[in-house]
Amino acid sequence: VAIYRLTSVACTYCPEMSAALSNINDYTRDHSVLLEFHSNDIGPDEFTIPYNDLGSALARMYGAGYPFCIYSIAEGSGKRTVNDIQRLVKNQLVANPARTGIKASSTVAAGKLTVNAEVTASAAGKYDLGMAVLRDNCIPSGAAYEDRYDDVVENISGNYHAISMDAFNLEADASKSITKECDLRTDDLKNYHVALF
Length: 197
Description:
By secondary structure, the chain is α+β, with helices and mostly antiparallel strands. It has helices at about 15-20, 25-30, 55-60, 80-95, and strands at about 1-5, 35-40, 70, 75, 100-110, 110-120, 125, 130-135, 150-155, 170, 175-185, 190-195. The chain has a 4-stranded mixed β-sheet, with helices on both faces. A 3-stranded antiparallel β-sheet has the order 5-6-11, with no helix packed on it. It starts with a strand and ends with a strand.
C-alpha cells in the first residue's frame, strides 16, 4: 500500500501524524511504503519538489487539509491515530488482494539513477510501476514544527496519480522486466533511497 503523506514544515498538527506513522505495527509497516509530499500551502517549505508543488496538487484533488494521507490513491484521510492508519492500510489490502513482487537493482552514473526492476503479480490484470527518490534526515534550516523529516519525495515518476501509457498486462504469476531512469540533484546519496510501487 503506497501511503502519500501530505505535510508542511509549518503544519502545527503534522507532528501528530508523524508520531502515529512511526508507531504503526510491523504488519502495517511491512505492507506499506511511505512517500512524504511537502507543500507550500501553509507557508514556504524548503522540501517541496522544486519543479512542482505536488503536495498542493494532491491536496486539491482530495479536498484535503494538513496533515493528510492518501492510501494507494483510493482513499484519503486526515485521521492521526495509529489504529486509524492501520485500519486504512488493512482496508486497502482486503480490497486489493493480489500479491505483487518487485525485485530491483540500481546504478548511479553521471547524475542519473537507473533502476532495473522485475514485477510479478499473483493475479492477471493491468499494472504500472512507479518510482520515487526519497530523502531522509532532512533538517529544516528555518522555523519548523519538527526537527527532522524522512521519506521526503525529491523526484517521482509521472504516474504517481494515474496509470501511464507504459502500463502493461500481466498474466497470473507472470513477470515483466522494466527499466526506470531519473536525474539526481546530488552526488551525496547516503540519505537517499528509492521506492518502487
